[in-house]
Amino acid sequence: MFFRKKSAESAAGSGAASGQGNGGVHVSMTVNGKAVAAEIDPRMLLVQFLREHLRLTGTHVGCDTSQCGACVVHVDGRAAKSCTLLAATCDGSKVTTIEGLAQDGKLHPMQEAFRQHHGLQCGFCTPGMIMSAVDLVQRSGGKLDEHAIRDGLEGNLCRCTGYHNIVAAVTAGAANMAGMRQAAE
Ligand code: FES
Ligand code: FES
Fold it and tell me: I need a surface site. Which of 4, 42, 74, 143 has the fewest CB within 10 A?
């Protein structure tokens, strides 16, 4: 289940997205806690903005059909496929990419769980998997069994088919995140 702020497809007919006047559009947003602003092509996708403009290449592009989930980031706290969003429609948003998860040099508990449980093989799907998993845990209210994890990650494909370890990693990551929450209370 992915949040769609405004899809590239649906926005394609709007004035901003159609490139009327051949002009760029001004966009400003907060990415990984840092304010960024730029003049961009109104047709630029969020994933292009992140990768090509900000050089945050941890967000991957694995398909051109919005199916693989390699491009998942958080937009205003919800998982979103950044290949389905125009950067211009994210004006004013808070975006978090995989590069923004670790804090003070310490891996996020979900990243740590993927490391400990070998939840990756080639690693191509991993940033999107982790961003989706963090969102899934945050939305689950602590109730996540194997079925719910597999269901919740249906929008993320692993071409190495390492799903068994990914589910184990998300289970452990969810427990780690719950432990962190309790420690903070
Ligand atoms: Fe976005 Fe595949 S690149 S879903
Ligand atoms: Fe290779 Fe998932 S680890 S695509």
Answer: 143
